[in-house]
Design goal:
56 residues; mainly alpha; elongated
């Protein structure tokens, strides 16, 4: 496995992890466990990362 292939695999795993966290924070916000402000703070960089890799 070459470097680029390993990098792509890691990137895919990170994207999946970000998606899972965003889904978890969605549920927490819906259930009133976290505020909108907390939701935004915890999901901003995850969403930015997902946008960045989807633009490739």
């Amino acid at each position: 496995m070459n470097y680029q292939s390993k990098f792509n695999d890691i990137e895919k795993q990170l994207a999946e992890l970000c998606t899972n966290f965003i889904n978890m924070f969605d549920k927490m916000k819906i259930n009133g466990i976290i505020t909108e402000e907390e939701y935004i703070r915890h999901t901003k960089y995850k969403k930015d990362f997902l946008k960045k890799i989807s633009a490739k």
